[in-house]
Specification:
168 residues, mainly alpha, ATP_synth_F0_dsu_mt, 0% strand, ATP_synth_F0_dsu_sf_mt, mitochondrion inner membrane, CF(0), rod-shaped
């Protein structure tokens, strides 16, 4: 099942379309490299000749017991089957964590887009500064009234930094 999924992955689109982090992209590329190398090694091993001509060795060697023992060991050899369940579980856990992280990222991006849309809507609906009255400014920012009163009492008629920022 895992090899079917790995064979159907479009690696070139994977990193671009999902917007993955650099670390995740590097891990995927390393995995792809190991996978390609394993496929190459398996293909090379399948092409190698695997039968042994024991009669040839019986003619060459005087000690027939060694050849007989080697033939016996080879015929009795049964490759052990490896349970890949643990490795597949690790891959599935990695997949699950990656998907959870992707979902969290999507929700954060969606929330940020909503905030930006609300800000944009607010900016579009805001009246120009020249159309706002002093009373409306004081209503929106009551502390402005106190600041202006203190400046008038001290005889200050200029706002510090105004000329530098907006010119005269």
């Amino acid at each position: 099942m895992a090899s079917v999924r790995a064979a159907s992955i479009d690696w070139s689109k994977l990193t671009v379309t999902l917007g993955l982090k650099k670390e995740t992209i590097a891990a995927l590329q390393a995995f792809r490299k190991r996978n390609d190398e394993a496929k190459r090694v398996v293909a090379a091993l399948k092409q190698q000749k695997s039968d042994i001509d024991f009669e040839h060795y019986r003619r060459l060697l005087k000690n027939q017991a060694i050849v007989n023992e080697a033939e016996k060991v080879l015929t009795q050899f049964k490759p052990t089957k490896v349970d890949l369940g643990a490795q597949l579980k690790i891959v599935e856990n990695f997949e699950k964590k990656a998907m959870d992280y992707a979902r969290k990222t999507v929700s954060k991006v969606d929330a940020e887009l909503r905030d930006l849309q609300a800000t944009l809507t607010n900016m579009e609906q805001t009246r120009p500064f020249k159309d706002i009255s002093v009373d409306e400014l004081v209503k929106a920012k009551p502390e402005l009234n106190d600041i202006v009163e203190k400046m008038v009492k001290k005889g200050r008629w200029k706002v510090p930094g105004y000329e530098e920022k907006f010119g005269f």
